[in-house]
Design brief:
The chain has 944 residues and is of the alpha+beta class. The protein is 45% helix and 12% strand. α2 packs antiparallel against α3 (64-73) and α22 packs across α28. The termini are far apart.
Length: 944
């Protein structure tokens, strides 16, 4: 192209950019002093003036700038109307190149005279675009074709224009930090040069055509059959010449012809959207340039879309495809956990924990499109939302206005996602230009669901992959894995099973998927929500504080927690709470029913429960404290220790057992990608109708259990609830972490040897409280702010409601605490009577209700002869953890498909029988019942 031409083009680009920039800055200051009516007119004239400047420069420079202008001209949903009206001229053909240039390129590329290839060649081009022009022709064998010929020297111009565009974007990001489009231009620099190889485009065209025409080999074919588009056949290609089948069609900007032929524009754009949903979510291979010039409409009814120009085509991995599908569905469902998990899977890293704002921004891409006539309102709505997000960011990070403009909340943005979002924006612009509305959530959802459910080309997960690939620790584990395969995906969505015998791991199996819409395999470090299993962990914390001399079982709660001593609660003792005999079994039940999200406010729930009134005298009746147990014990834990609940959890259990990152009561930000999502076994749920409450179950609970079971997954899949401290129901753990906990309890607190080295990643290798990447922002000294363990800047005097902001201030503190714990001995309890306390026997028998199902905090299990030898705790839906003291055995089972516990019951029974160990009565009872804590508190004759 020559240095002179290069420098000239660069000067023109930057001179125009500066002129437009200073024009807008001047008007911005001037309109502050004029009326609203005059202000609007001034801005319209400014937009028109600068749009014409942009248009003239783009036509003069051609190349990449025309392509950029075509893209901008489709964004009627976000760009001011004058820009759309002016730049849409670029959708028409540009001035054609001379015939001599065209002939020279064709004959050089094909290696023969044009007359030997074509019986007829129409001299006037059908269209002239930024990279090539297209002529209609007839081959020597009589086939009607179109010939695409690349402009001579365009490759050098495009590559130079990319450099200029990159420099321009960097300058804009420097001048106006809130407009940082560097990730987008970087991805374009990587992908755009591929358009200059027509052999590449030919192969892309063949691939997309095969993918979209697949109706018999794609599973049921239902999704593929929903796509009905036309793609020209590739006849021949070289580096700079492409010959395609001719298809007679109407251009999308030819509104008169569309009207004359009776084309349904709504149906047309919906079909194009379906085609792109298939390409993105099913094929992982899509055209990245869906502007109006790349489509035609067939003239024959039913007027199918004709897809053209596959030069800029993007291939993405299966994992990225699933992450994009998960992102889409999380927006459709409003699921913050799934959204943050999808971000992690696709490599999008955030510097700040703001899930609601992340959801707001992500949902923008899938929002219903607007017509061009609604563009102004849409622009205002987007601007208002952006201002709200910026304000929230400013408050969260404690930044001033200047700092927040420079702060980028995104640490890393994957290139694949950029092209994906560009496609969504172009499709939105396409619908706006044709003045139709598209509900993307409705049209694209079936394709995203099919990808995550694996019901298309890949089918169900093969047996070899359904069980996580890790060596079997024992023969019984091999038999267990065969049993899980027999049960299959009808009964199991995702499951973890871990067992210790005599301090050694004999089972550590993970199988299935993380969620209904999350086909990633369950791994040993996946985190399952376990409901009332959490009570067994909370109880262990109370026992630890007693062991440390911080409180006593016989002590009144009011002595530890003064505000608790009201409304006839003065006589309630710590052992009453642990034994479910305090009379507060329904405490907060009505309040939570009317305001479910109250459970997310730790301090307020503690205040509320301190005001409650018992329904029975302390110690008189053992009635399951299904929800109140956690707050009652949690309040005692914090007041007795003088520490945050989660700090005690780490000190008493997590660090000594070295299970960091795999046992939480309320998750911290940063672990979302490892979470299992809950769903319900609807067939088993129907069996709840015949179950009646027993004497140990609050009637208010069981009468509502079916409705609650169906609604619980929705509630407990939300991020607010998962992050809350609900010590009766909000545990998140892996089976290997919970089994290790019970293996320690089975021996009275002796810490087992390190977990199996075959379990990957190693247990305890995760950071317990992950950090966000450090923000590139320096704070002045003396501002009263510090960087906390989450990587956020927070006020040193405040703590978030979940208690994570102030738990630890440095890695050095963590290391010192861990070292101290390791050096203090190999036990978490020093009392030689702690096992009697767990089960409420021996000297502690007077503290438990006679013949009650609970000891002090743990569910007691007996064998067929009625001998107490097991203790543990199960949760609603089937997850469980327990130990056999006499045989030094501990086991944990995690499930995410909630049922009445039949899967867990079968797993436990198989393992114990294979080992020759006694089976607790709840696990050996015939029928479909299992370790659902609520159901097994009712007498067997009522569980029919």
């Amino acid at each position: 192209m020559g240095w002179g031409n290069t420098i000239t083009r660069r000067l023109k680009v930057f001179s125009m950019a500066l002129l437009i920039y200073f024009d807008y800055k001047a008007v911005q200051k001037r309109v502050q002093w004029v009326s609203t009516t005059k202000k609007s007119a001034t801005w319209t004239k400014t937009h028109e003036r600068n749009a014409r400047r942009v248009l003239n420069l783009m036509i003069e420079l051609e190349g990449l700038w025309v392509k950029m202008g075509q893209y901008l001209s489709t964004r009627a949903d976000v760009l001011p109307e004058p820009y759309i009206n002016v730049l849409k001229q670029l959708q028409d053909s540009l001035p054609p190149r001379p015939l001599e240039e065209v002939r020279g390129t064709i004959e050089k590329e094909l290696g023969k005279p044009m007359s030997d290839v074509f019986a007829d060649f129409v001299l006037d081009p059908l269209a002239t675009a930024s990279i090539a022009q297209v002529h209609r022709a007839t081959l020597a064998d009589g086939r009607e074709v179109v010939v695409k010929i690349q402009h001579d020297g365009i490759k050098e111009i495009i590559l130079e224009d990319l450099k200029n565009a990159k420099s321009l974007i960097e300058w804009i990001a420097w001048a106006e930090p809130q407009y940082n489009f560097n990730p987008m231009i970087d991805e374009w620099c990587k992908e755009a040069p591929k358009e200059l190889d027509f052999n590449h485009e030919a192969e892309n065209t063949r691939t997309v055509s095969r993918n979209l025409s697949c109706k018999t080999d794609c599973g049921s074919g239902s999704i593929s059959s929903a796509v009905d588009v036309l793609i020209p056949e590739v006849i021949q290609s070289t580096d700079k010449v492409l010959i395609l089948e001719y298809m007679d069609g109407i251009r999308l900007n030819d509104n008169d012809s569309l009207e004359a032929y009776g084309v349904d524009k709504q149906k047309l754009v919906e079909e194009i959207t379906r085609a792109y949903a298939h390409q993105i979510y099913i094929d992982g291979f899509f055209n990245g340039d869906p502007h109006p010039g790349n489509f035609l409409v067939s003239k024959e009814p039913p007027h199918k879309p004709i897809l053209l120009d596959f030069g800029l085509t993007k291939r993405i991995s299966k994992s990225m495809t699933q992450a994009l599908a998960k992102m889409f569905l999380s927006c459709a469902e409003g699921d913050h956990v799934a959204l943050l998990s999808a971000f992690a899977e696709m490599g999008l890293k955030l510097r700040v924990d703001m899930p609601q704002q992340a959801m707001d921004i992500a949902t923008v891409f899938f929002r219903q499109s607007t017509t061009a006539s609604e563009a102004k309102e849409n622009l205002k709505a987007l601007s208002d939302q952006r201002e709200r997000n910026v304000k929230a960011l400013q408050e969260k990070m404690k930044l001033n206005k200047k700092e927040v403009q420079k702060f980028n909340p995104v640490d890393a943005f994957p290139g694949d996602a950029i092209i994906f979002m560009r496609v969504l924006n172009l499709l939105r612009g396409l619908s706006a230009s044709l003045n139709v509305k598209i509900v993307y959530l409705d049209i694209m959802r079936p394709f995203a669901e099919s990808t995550l459910l694996g019901s298309l080309t890949h089918g169900q997960i093969p047996n070899s992959q359904w069980i996580y690939d890790s060596p079997a620790n024992s023969d019984v584990e091999s038999k267990l894995r065969n049993y899980l395969r027999e049960l299959g995906s009808d009964k199991i969505l995702g499951i973890q099973v871990c067992a210790y015998k005599d301090g050694k791991v004999i089972i550590d199996t993970a199988a299935g998927m993380l969620g209904k819409y999350d086909p990633r395999p369950v791994q040993p470090d996946s985190l399952f929500p376990v409901f009332s299993v959490t009570k067994g962990i909370t109880a262990g914390m109370v026992h630890w504080l007693v062991n440390e001399g911080k409180l006593k079982y016989e002590e009144t709660v009011a002595n530890i927690w003064p505000n608790f001593g009201t409304n006839t609660k003065e006589l309630i003792k710590v052992h009453h709470l642990l034994n479910h005999t305090s009379g507060l079994h329904n405490a907060l039940g009505d309040v939570v029913k009317s305001d479910p999200m109250l459970v997310c406010d730790w301090e307020e729930t503690l205040n509320q429960i301190a005001k409650c009134t018992p329904e029975t005298e302390p110690g008189s009746a053992q009635i399951y404290h299904y929800l109140s147990f956690g707050w009652l014990c949690g309040g005692v834990i914090e007041h007795a220790s003088g520490k945050k609940f989660q700090e005690v959890l780490e000190e008493a259990i997590v660090r000594p057992l070295h299970i960091e990152g795999e046992l939480y009561i309320g998750i911290p930000p940063g672990v979302e990608s490892r979470l299992a999502a809950l769903t319900v076994d609807t067939e088993e749920l129907q069996k709840l109708s015949g179950i009646r409450a027993g004497p140990g179950v609050p009637p208010e609970l069981l009468s509502n259990v079916a409705q609650m079971a169906s609604g619980v997954p929705v509630l407990f899949n939300t991020l607010n609830v998962r992050r809350a401290i609900i010590p009766a129901a909000n545990g998140h753990c892996s089976a290997r972490a919970l089994a290790r906990y019970y293996a320690a309890l089975a021996t009275g607190g002796s810490i087992p040897p390190p977990h199996s080295a075959d379990s990957k990643p190693p247990l305890g290798s995760h950071v317990h409280t992950p950090k966000f990447p450090t923000a590139p922002l320096k704070k002045k000294k003396g501002t009263g702010k510090k960087k906390c363990s989450t990587g956020n800047l927070q006020d040193a005097s405040n703590s978030d409601k979940n208690g994570y902001s102030q738990l630890r201030t440095s890695d050095a503190d963590d290391e010192a605490a861990a070292t101290a714990a390791a050096g203090s001995g190999s036990r978490i309890f020093s009392s030689d009577k702690i096992l009697d306390a767990f089960m409420g026997v021996g000297e502690y028998e007077s503290m438990v209700h006679p013949n009650g199902k609970f000891g002090l905090g743990f569910r007691r299990y007996s064998n067929a002869s009625g001998t107490l030898r097991f203790f543990g705790h199960s949760g609603m839906g089937g997850s469980t953890g327990f130990c056999d003291v006499e045989n030094n055995f501990a086991m944990a089972v995690m499930v995410n498909k909630m049922s009445l516990g039949s899967v867990t019951r079968g797993v436990v029974r198989l393992v114990l029988e294979e080992l020759g160990l006694p089976v607790p009565d709840e696990f050996s009872t015939s029928g479909e019942k299992g370790p659902d804590m609520v159901l097994n508190l009712a007498p067997p004759e009522q569980q029919s």
